[in-house]
Amino acid sequence: MLPVEIAYHAPFGATAGWHIFEYAVEALFALDVLFHFNTTVYDSDGNEIFDRKHLAIDYLSEMHFWIDMAATIPFNKMSSNAAAKLAPTLKVIRITALS
After folding, report:
1. Distance of alpha carbon 99 from alpha carbon 96, whole angstroms
2. Could you tell me which residues are beta bridge partners of residue 42?
3. CA–CA distance from 86 to each of 19, 52, 60, 80, 92 (Å)?
4. What's the angle, vertex CA 38, arms to CA 37 and CA 42, rounded to 5?
5. How does pLDDT run across 39-91, given as a tens digit for each residue?
6. Is the dihedral of CA 87, 67, 96, 40 positive or negative?
7. Are 12 and 5 in contact (CB under 8 A)?
8. Which of 4, 25, 32, 76 could form a disulfide with 87 if both were Cys (CB 3.0 to 4.6 A apart)?
9. Which residues, in sequence order, are bridge partners of residue 49?
């Protein structure tokens, strides 16, 4: 479920085109996570860090990673009733991931 569905209470889920759009958005969120794992950071001296292990540890230690992961996991596609009920609430996190 995308934020636009939540905001407008639209019955988009019935069309094949909407499903394709939803999967494309989910793929973009997953690519964003991969992109952040490869984005360099600066240390306290202003030196750019290229070491991939350091970049991964830095990203995993930030709250932004957990927001990105919560936005990427397709809770509404899971078979668990509990996950399906939480999906609309958890997908609102995508709005914060966009900022």
Report:
1. 5
2. 48
3. 19, 34, 24, 10, 10
4. 95
5. 898 989 999 999 999 999 988 998 888 878 877 777 666 666 666 666 666 66
6. negative
7. yes
8. 76
9. 41
